Description:
With 112 residues, this protein is mostly helical. It is 41% helix and 0% strand.
Amino acid sequence: MRRWQVWFFGRSGQILFWAAVVLVGAFLIGASGGRAQWWWPFHRPSPSVVLATGTWTHDYPIMAEEAKSLGLSVSTDVPEEVYQFMSLIPQPTRTRPAVEYVPMPYRSRQGS
């Protein structure tokens, strides 16, 4: 037998161990829609590890319920003073779109 065959088929069920690891990983990611859920209560990583490993990206914000499940201290109560302060500085509304669609290519002024 070659070295890889001994490693792959030998060592008393090493292939079964790695198959179980792959299946559990596929279950964790597949059942959560692409985000890992920590269903084992003793294997909960720290919030800093979860936030730093790319579980959430810029296009998927962390909602309050998910932040609470990570163990972060989250409050959704906003004091009335914050709303009063925000009303003092109104945000401008856009009067024209930021991107314009031109259906035909531009012509040079010299050739027309």
